[in-house]
Amino acid sequence: MKLSVAPLICCLLIPAAYADDNGGLKKDAAPPPPHALDDGYRGAEDARIMTIKQAKEMHDGATISLRGNLIDDQGNDKYIFRDKTGKIDTIIPKAVFDGRTVEPDQMISINGSLDKKMTPPVVRVDHIRK
Fold first, then answer.
1. What is the rounded CA–CA span in Å between residue 22 and residue 94?
2. Angle in degrees, CA 73, 130, 91, rounded to 5
3. In which domain, by residue range, is 79 found?
4. Would you say 103 and 25 are in contact if contact means Cβ atoms under 8 Å apart?
5. How far is CA 85 from CA 16, 38, 51, 66, 99, in A?
6. Which of 5, 39, 47, 86 could form a disulfide with 52 if both were Cys (CB 3.0 to 4.6 A apart)?
7. CATH of the domain at 49
8. What is the mean pLDDT of residues 4-21?
9. Is residue 4 situated within a structural domain?
């Protein structure tokens, strides 16, 4: 039984065509207005989620959990995150997205640490949950 090389090569190249999407922020939709940010989310985790205003008052290196929207991609893994109390700069490596895409109108949770040595302070994100 002879096998042709061409079908074998095609089978190996098909998965590469589906791997083009690397995740990150897609700016197809506009973020919701700040006053509508807690619509639709209730649960026991509300007690552990803090606001950006509270996070900015914490000490350097503090563990941060925020719920809101990624609204802008500034390049080099830098993004702007917003909740109902304000905005904060974040650093989110591509590996944290794990191939998932986030749109500005999607409510997400981020976990990370506060870096107050940078001006303005930033959150170094190590986990995203949609």
1. 8
2. 35
3. 23-129
4. yes
5. 42, 11, 6, 11, 29
6. 86
7. 2.40.50.200
8. 59
9. no
